[in-house]
Write a structure and sequence with these properties.
The complex is a heterotrimer of chains A (246), B (208) and C (112).
Chain A (H helix, E strand, L loop, with lengths): L7 E12 L2 E7 L11 E7 L5 E7 L9 E7 L7 H6 L6 E8 L13 E6 L3 H14 L5 E7 L8 H8 L5 E7 L16 H8 L7 E7 H13 L7 E6 L5
Parallel strand pairs in A: 7-8, 7-10, 8-9, 10-11
Antiparallel strand pairs in A: 1-2, 1-6, 2-5, 3-4, 3-6
Chain B lengths: L30 E2 L20 E6 L5 E4 H5 L4 E8 L4 E12 H5 L10 E6 L4 E5 H4 L5 E6 L2 E2 L9 E3 L12 E7 L28
Parallel strand pairs in B: 1-5, 2-11
Antiparallel strand pairs in B: 2-3, 4-5, 5-8, 6-7, 6-11, 8-9, 8-10
Chain C lengths: L8 H11 L13 H8 L7 E4 L5 E3 L4 E3 L5 E4 L6 E7 L4 E4 L3 E4 L9
Antiparallel strand pairs in C: 1-2, 1-7, 3-4, 4-5, 5-6
Classes of the chains: A alpha/beta (246), B mainly beta (208), C alpha+beta (112).
Chain lengths: 246, 208, 112
């Protein structure tokens, strides 16, 4: 899949708060050739004096949306870029975008078999593109998302995940809250471990695909546990973010 | 060169102290920062102090090596210097404590043909400097930053500091200087970076 | 966070994040996807490579990436030796692949 990686200008459209610290931005891209779920874009930010930085952001939206993509960004208080995105950027602003990028951590419905998605915090973003792609395509193979967050207020895409998992399409969401649980919480309440993965994995079997994304420690724990549970290592794809998120 | 698109409202995390008399202390192409960014080419080494040593060998009459205790017993002094990284940040008035390379070299006798020092570190990093660039208080081995023991992610327990060169020459986790008669480009010098790295001449890349 | 174990990256990364704590700091070979695609003109993260030091084979996406320094360094997750180094100067991009005994480029079209 050869692509010219030139910078293009995107126009910010809708901006939506997912949680108190996480915000999604719709970027309209006239020259967009489309993407695959799991890919990311690079954004470049340049100040008046020429100082510039680049950051990578997973594409949150499904490939079926034409001409625009969503990125979802967590605001890190001391960050160099995320406070700018949250506090300064408004609809109509233009941002430099390059991509889509990535050929390893991608999933589409042609990859047959059940789908297990394991996310820690903002690691859910590229997996959400996969969830949305699955929903739009009408794929019927079973899929499950095991999603680790610190508190219930910090669950990104909570309502949409609730809606999709209740739609009877064979998609289920399993939450674990690692720091604090609301009264009456019936989900998991600890860091992801082998026992939790075994329970979530059990109905899916070992014939499908697994995608894990989040902080390095979570990704390595989950990947190692799944291999011990009998998942072939070449069916487990991982993407490690820094230790932000849970 | 095409004009770069400017992102409305973006400033970046930089000090507000640009310009004024500080601009004369900022090398060309650099931006002042108040942070101390951590930039690495590999995992942070964690050599226990009871296995750490600093050595000088190569074209010397007799090689020498200091244990951690012996190194700390050497005459040390405070250094306040400006540091520039090739990734464009400059940080002013960084306070270090360390042992001058002159002090280290007093413990050995150089062979007449000695001309270069190759600094080598835990984790395999190397960088090269002409001896002329490290003599006369131009370089020191630091073990404290800002009044505290040098943190591992910043090169602790001890790192080389060469304030007159881009910071990639200030080898973190230094374990020795190998004295040679011939130059030997180090980790970054062998992959496109300038062999000397003088930030005032903006010697970033080979061919600059 | 386990800072005493040299093979546990969470320790050093937590320290790094405390000083450069922006989100989306990808730290495996996926982080090098953009620069590698720009050089090779093709998607590189799925390319398997054999570590010249220990012989293990990993896709580039699975390598440990250090991307915030003067260049990009991709290391073997098994032995931590350097597999690939990339430096982008103003004039050119330098690639040192000596740490890879080989890279494998499949010829057939991928399905889908």
């Amino acid at each position: 899949m050869a692509r010219t990686l030139d910078w293009q200008l995107a126009t910010v459209g809708a901006i939506r708060d997912e949680t108190p610290t996480v915000r999604s931005f719709t970027l309209a891209l006239p020259g967009w050739d489309g993407h695959r779920a799991g890919q990311h874009v690079d954004l470049r930010f340049t100040a008046e004096d020429g100082y510039s930085v680049e950051r990578s952001y997973s594409i949150a939206s499904e490939p079926e949306r034409i001409g625009e993509i969503d990125v979802t960004v967590e605001r890190i208080p001391d960050g160099e870029v995320s406070p700018f995105l949250h506090d300064v950027v408004v609809p109509g602003d233009r941002l430099e975008v390059r991509g889509p990028i990535g050929g390893y951590f991608v999933w589409d419905t042609s990859m047959r078999g059940p789908l297990l998605l394991v996310a820690g915090g903002s690691g859910v973003v590229p997996l959400m593109a996969m969830v949305r792609h699955r929903a739009r395509s009408g794929d019927a193979a079973p899929a499950r998302l095991l999603f680790s967050s610190r508190t219930s207020d910090e669950i990104i895409y909570r309502d949409e995940l609730e809606r999709l998992s209740s739609a009877g399409t064979g998609f289920g969401v399993f939450h674990t809250l690692t720091r604090e649980q609301p009264p009456g919480w019936i989900g998991y309440a600890r860091r992801i471990d082998e026992r939790m993965l075994a329970e979530v994995l059990e109905p899916l079997g070992a014939e499908g695909w697994t995608f894990i994304c989040g902080p390095t420690a979570l990704v390595e724990t989950a990947a190692n546990a799944l291999v011990r549970l009998g998942i072939p290592a070449d069916r487990v794809r991982t993407e490690r973010f820094g230790p932000t998120g849970t | 060169m095409t004009d770069r698109f400017v992102t409305r409202g973006f400033v970046g995390r930089r000090g507000s102290d640009q310009g004024g008399d500080l601009s004369s202390r900022t090398p060309p192409g650099q931006y002042l920062t108040r942070d101390f960014p951590v930039l690495s080419a590999g995992p942070t080494p964690r050599t226990p102090l009871d296995r750490w040593s600093l050595s000088i060998d190569g074209l010397v009459k007799a090689p020498v090596s200091w244990t951690w205790e012996q190194f700390l017993a050497l005459p040390a002094r405070d250094w306040t210097v400006d540091i520039s990284c090739v990734t464009k940040w400059t940080k002013l008035d960084m306070r270090w404590r360390g042992v001058s390379v002159d002090t280290l070299l007093e413990a050995i006798d150089l062979e007449p043909s000695a001309a270069f020092a190759i600094a080598w570190s835990d984790g395999g990093y190397t960088t090269n400097l002409p001896l002329a660039d490290v003599l006369n208080n131009q370089a020191f081995v630091a073990f404290e930053y800002d009044g505290k023991p040098l943190a591992p992610e910043h090169g602790g327990p001890a790192r080389l500091v060469v304030p007159g060169r881009y910071f990639w020459k200030s080898a973190k986790w230094i374990r020795g200087l190998r004295i040679q008669d011939r130059d030997e480009p180090g980790f970054w010098e062998s992959l496109g970076y300038h062999n000397r790295g003088d930030q005032w001449r903006e010697e970033r890349y080979s061919g600059d | 966070m386990n800072e005493s174990n040299p093979s546990d990256p969470a320790g050093e990364l937590a320290g790094e994040a405390a000083r450069d704590p922006d989100a989306e700091m990808m730290v495996d070979g996926n982080a090098a996807a953009g620069v590698l695609a720009a050089i090779f003109g093709a998607e590189m993260t799925a390319v398997p490579g054999r570590c010249a030091n220990c012989g293990h084979v990993h896709r580039i996406a699975e390598l440990q990436a250090y991307v915030r320094g003067p260049g990009t360094v991709l290391r073997c997750p098994d032995c931590h030796e350097v597999v690939l180094r990339v430096v982008e100067t103003t004039e050119a991009t330098y690639v040192d692949a000596r740490g890879a005994a080989y890279l494998v480029f499949e010829r057939r079209e991928r399905p889908g």
